[in-house]
Design a protein that fits this description.
The chain has three helices and twelve strands. The strands form three sheets. It has a seven-stranded antiparallel β-sheet with strand order 3-2-6-9-10-5-4. Strands 1-11-12 form a three-stranded antiparallel β-sheet, covered by helices on one side.
């Protein structure tokens, strides 16, 4: 039996409504990286989406007010890292404003196209940015896959109810 929505509790659209709804939506956790003029930049994203298989294209959202935006707005290539459930601290570090995201204990190396590639992730891609689409206070970045690896062991990290979690059987 399907429950009927209670329209009496409906709220008008607002940033708080959107945040509240998406706290109930479990999402995979990724870290997006790039090489900037002042060194590597990166941020935690739960908006990673597969867009196209032919050619292979992914998308993610980035706030234009974030510290990574200036570099992301100009870079030609980005790194996309799918995090494992063992990487809750790494996800939190890349989500925290003002954090030294690439300092110890973060382990990384310079990858193809000079993109910072994080160690010990479930999977990673280096992608060529093909578009940045305005979307309110964000940009949707479309990026074509150049190279990657999906052989990392473990289970994915998910974000739900404002927390990073592992999957449960």
């Amino acid at each position: 039996m399907t429950a009927t929505p209670d329209l009496g509790t409906a709220r008008l659209a607002s940033p708080d409504l959107l945040r509240s709804v998406f706290r109930r939506h479990a999402a995979g956790v990724a870290v997006i990286t790039a090489s900037g003029d002042s060194g590597p930049v990166g941020f935690t994203a739960t908006s990673l989406t597969s867009v196209s298989a032919e050619p292979p294209i992914v998308s993610f959202g980035i706030g234009t007010g974030g510290s990574s935006w200036p570099a992301m707005s100009e870079t030609g290539h980005v790194g996309v890292h799918v995090l494992g459930e063992h990487q809750q601290e790494l996800a939190a570090t890349f989500a925290r404003s003002g954090a030294d995201r690439f300092g110890a204990p973060t382990r990384w190396r310079e990858g193809p196209e000079g993109v910072p590639v994080l160690d010990d992730v479930l999977a990673w891609l280096v992608c060529r940015v093909v578009a940045r689409v305005p979307a309110g206070d964000h940009r949707i970045v479309l990026a074509e896959v150049v190279v990657g690896d999906h052989s990392g062991p473990g289970r994915p990290l998910v974000y739900h109810q404002g927390r990073f979690n592992g999957l449960r059987d």
